[in-house]
Design a protein that fits this description.
Elements: H1 6-29, H2 37-55, H3 61-68, H4 71-74, H5 77-97, H6 104-119, H7 129-155, H8 159-169, H9 184-209, E1 217-218, E2 221-222, H10 223-236, H11 246-249, H12 255-262, H13 279-284, H14 311-315, H15 317-324
Antiparallel strand pairs: 1-2
Helix pairs in contact: 1-5, 2-10, 6-9, 7-9, 8-15, 10-12
Length: 334
């Protein structure tokens, strides 16, 4: 890119800064964002209450803060790398890959049109609009969860996908910032998988209902998913061992479920691929229920790159590994 003057360079720099600030604002301030300050605060309150109840006696504020924010995580190299990738993904990923993303609305519209051409348009169903919206909301949430599970399963089975998804698993400590520790290609493929599955389900339901129906959303995010964001999503990447067992553990994926997924113990490989629900893991035989007591787990060390927290290893090396067919040690269940 050639700049005609210092003023032109400054203007472009200001534009980039505005894009970054706008993206950052959307990420942290929009209530429906997965990383909204409100949802993070809600998860923090839940974690604090869990620790207080678990202790079964009064807890001093200083002790509680240390338990919630251990220095080994706050000041660790993993967290610094997570913050760097957060900045990159917030600014660059959308600018670089936005054009390559499928749209739920485009896929859904194509599915509805295709069904109408093959089977004809249906007479609008007599179901009340509110009921249609509720059905659409639940169906699209389940479709999202299935797309998440299926893509996540494939990313641990197919070497090309694992080359990019492995970046997420190089984290040696888990915190909500670990959600940002993803390669843009991983996000790109995942986003298209979700758009394809939810678009097919949504388009089919619109055809069945015989009229346009939109789900309940908050800032474009399914309302059921927002509820999970405020309760569990941030705690899945954390050091807080909250374990759901029994029938509940076969339906909802607790933080301990996902911590087992990140474990370097071969006994835990290939388990717990779900987002918020463990139903698909249960149905397809990849569910591993956590123990009631916390387990000592090691994250990220056994298959890490030489310098797993560097920007080069996180962003450039996966391309080389996938193109050259480097043996990346796809984790296989024990």
């Amino acid at each position: 890119m050639v700049f005609s003057s210092i003023g032109d360079f400054t203007a472009r720099l200001a534009d980039a800064g505005s894009v970054f600030a706008g993206n950052l604002s959307g990420v942290f301030l929009a209530p429906g964002s997965q990383f909204s300050i409100l949802s993070i605060a809600s998860a923090l309150v839940i974690a604090a209450l869990f620790l207080i109840i678990k202790r079964r006696r009064p807890v001093r504020l200083k002790v509680l803060i240390r338990a919630l924010f251990p220095k080994r995580i706050l000041l660790g190299e993993t967290t610094r790398a997570d913050i760097t990738l957060m900045a990159f993904n917030t600014l660059a990923a959308g600018m670089l890959f936005g054009w390559a993303m499928l749209s739920y609305h485009v896929v859904g519209g194509a599915v509805t049109s295709g069904l109408e051409r093959v089977f004809g348009a249906l007479t609008p169903a007599s179901i009340p609009q509110g009921a249609c919206v509720a059905i659409m909301t639940v169906a699209l949430y389940l479709a999202y969860e299935f797309a998440y599970w299926f893509y996540h399963y494939l990313s641990h089975r197919i070497p090309f996908l694992w080359a990019f998804h492995r970046v997420h698993h190089t984290a040696e400590a888990l915190s909500p910032l670990t959600n940002f520790r993803v390669h843009p290609i991983d996000s790109l493929v995942f986003g298209n998988a979700v758009a394809l599955v939810t678009g097919v389900v949504g388009g089919a339901l619109v055809w069945i209902f015989g009229r346009p129906v939109n789900p309940f959303v908050l800032n474009g995010t399914n309302l059921i998913l927002v509820g999970f964001m405020f309760c569990l999503v941030h705690l899945q990447h954390s050091h807080i061992w909250i374990a759901f067992r029994g029938p509940l553990g076969k339906i909802i994926l607790s933080p301990a479920h996902h911590q087992l997924h990140h474990s370097e113990n071969p006994e835990h490989f290939g388990r717990n691929f779900g987002s918020c629900l463990s139903v698909w893991d249960w149905m397809f035989g990849t569910l591993l229920l956590p123990t009631a007591r916390p387990q000592k787990l090691v994250f990220g060390a056994a298959r890490a790159y030489e310098k797993p927290h560097s920007l080069k290893e996180s962003l450039i090396t996966p391309f080389a590994d996938s193109i050259l067919g480097v043996d990346m040690g796809v984790p296989q269940p024990a």
